[in-house]
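Listing S7. Sequence submitted for prediction.
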Amino acid sequence: MAWGVKPSDTQEWIKRINDKDETFTALHAMPSRKFAQGSLGKLFQALPEAIYLKELYLSGHALSEEDLQSLLTYLPQNMSLESICIGDGSLGDSGTTTISAAVKDHPTIVKVDLSKKAMSSASCAKVASSMGKLEELTVAENPLGDEGCIALAKGLPSAVAMQDLDLAETNCGKDGAKSFGEVQCHFSSSGRCATS
């Protein structure tokens, strides 16, 4: 695991991936760590070779358009990741839409965290279409409103594995909550929607 110390690029991690390091199962980079331009895109290019990596946590790090395109191209070729949380508050609808497209048919990813990514209702339909195999989706602390919550609720019937949808602090009002009730989603006091 990596915790906010050197290097400022991703070469060390890429080497561990290419060397098939069996102990390299989780990559967590603290938001305080700064990366050289283009280095995250290079890391994403190595993902098809990452056969032991299960967790990719790069939350709090800005992603360029080039980084996102690398993710879109190479993440679907990875066969080991189970959980991802990437990007920061500048990600917005365009970035969350790209991440959703990259995750949509991924064979092993079951947990996606899109909290605090500045996504709005505009990207919720795309996020909903990617929920098929997910067990856990976090969209907390994004201004989704009723419109976004309704779009997410429409995706739940096809999300057969979904166990936990975190909607805390998403401005989900009465109409949004009603849409989840219609698909038999039960909210806990923390804003989580359990579909069992």
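Caption to Listing S7: primary sequence and predicted structure tokens for the chain studied. The first helix runs from residue 11 to 18. The helical segments are 11-18, 39-45, 65-74, 92-103, 124-129, 145-155, 174-182.
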